[in-house]
Specification:
With about 400 residues, this protein is mainly α. The protein is built from 16 helices and no strands. GO terms for molecular function: symporter activity.
């Protein structure tokens, strides 16, 4: 209960705000400024938070050359499983749209200028024409790419870059604390915002959350049971499946109860040791996976995108929309990176990439809170099975026989 105390408090504030919205009707809009304050604070902090967090992680990695092969296969596994989880959720939301019948009259996002070539659109998405433009939430993808490059450059600078690496790490810690401070205001801000939202648009929005949860929970559980079984079989055949399910329950329960992939790292390291994963593989994959491998969050990202498309009465059924959604879901898993309130950062990425108005952020924030427990379980358990897949790729078919196992 301690781990979920804040999410429960947040949900309680939303419920109280929604009740006020029903009782006050359109008069509840007077509370909207309190919600706008929270939105502005979050949008203000997003740029330095993303820059420092991503740059610091990469700048402080050690032995990049020695671990190159492991990290290469790790990223391949993370990306492939992230794409698979995204496609699974795309199929689910296509069959059962999570916001069907809901209509909220926000400003409709502007469509992408089709007069631009695909190449020009890509250039606009991943770069900016001037240095100052990188410090804008509207250039989120370009900011992420630049943050990665700065991190690598700092790492490659070696001893001469050590002071700058310490600066990045210090900045990341300060930004995370700042997010934590801002999050204390979240119950007031989101409660007030939802009072206004329900008062103006009616309680139909609340029913749409139930539809979204009915879609997400079964899909996440089935992905956990079927998808991870398939991955374990690819990694080690029938013995791999057996050893995976024999040892994964402790990390899964830990993730479910703590609500944190980072808090599950010790349990995951112990479990993967019993699974036979080599020490050098598990020591790289498990800690990094807790930050950048989030199949559950990829599932949730697709759900959130489809949810917003439904609310704004936009067509979600196109190849271009699916491709962009898959790309965003992979980025969302990276951006979250275990930061307190980091889900908001991923949700901001969704909003800025599609051009939704900032009023859509609280809608996604509550949806993210509701699906967080199973998402975290899938995220953390996915790190363990990914370490098995990386072992198979690095060590070959007989990795389980060659792996060092603890004495029984």
């Amino acid at each position: 209960m301690k781990a979920y105390r804040f999410p429960l408090f947040l949900i309680a504030a939303i419920i109280i705000g929604s009740i006020l919205g029903v009782l006050l009707g359109e008069r509840a809009e007077v509370l909207k400024p309190l919600g706008d304050i929270f939105l502005n604070l979050m949008f203000t902090i997003v740029v330095p938070l993303v820059f420092f967090s991503i740059s610091a992680v990469i700048a402080n990695m050690s032995n990049l050359k020695r671990l190159g092969k492991i990290m290469t296969w790790m990223m391949v596994v993370f990306i492939v499983t992230g794409i698979i989880s995204s496609i699974v959720m795309i199929a689910a939301v296509t069959l059962s749209p999570p916001a069907a019948g809901v209509s909220i009259q926000f400003e409709t996002p502007e469509e992408i200028d089709e007069s631009l070539s695909l190449g020009a659109q890509i250039v606009q998405a991943v770069t900016v024409p001037d240095f100052v433009d990188i410090f804008s939430r509207t250039s989120m993808l370009a900011l992420i790419i630049m943050s990665v490059l700065v991190g690598f450059a700092t790492n490659l600078a070696g001893g001469e870059g050590r002071i700058f690496a310490q600066f990045l790490n210090s900045g990341a810690q300060v930004m995370r604390k700042l997010v934590g401070i801002i999050m204390y205001y979240a119950p007031i801000g989101l409660g007030a915002y939802f009072a206004s939202l329900v008062g103006v648009f009616g309680p139909e929005l609340l029913g749409s959350y139930a539809k979204a949860m009915i879609v997400y929970y079964p899909v996440a559980i089935l992905y956990f049971l079927i998808g991870f079984t398939l991955y374990a079989f690819i990694a080690g055949g029938k013995p791999g499946v057996k050893v995976f399910w024999k040892n994964i329950l402790t990390p899964a329960v830990t993730a479910l109860s703590t609500g944190s992939s980072v808090a599950t790292i010790p349990a995951n390291l112990q479990a993967t040791e019993k699974m036979g994963v080599h020490k050098d593989v598990r020591d790289v994959v498990i800690p990094l996976g807790a930050s950048i491998h989030m199949d559950g969050s990829a599932l949730a990202a697709i759900l959130k995108i489809a949810f917003l498309f439904g609310i704004f009465q936009m067509d979600f059924l196109s190849f271009q929309t699916f491709a962009i959604a898959i790309g965003i879901s992979l980025l969302v898993g990276t951006v979250m990176s275990g930061v307190p309130g980091g889900g908001f950062i991923g949700e901001m990425l969704i909003i800025t990439m599609y051009g939704f108005p900032m009023e859509a952020l609280p809608i996604l924030a509550i949806l993210g809170t509701l699906v967080d427990p199973p998402a975290t379980m899938v995220n953390a358990s996915g790190d363990a099975v990914s370490s098995m897949l990386v072992s198979r790729a690095v060590e070959g078919d007989e990795w389980m026989d060659e792996a060092e196992r603890p004495a029984s």
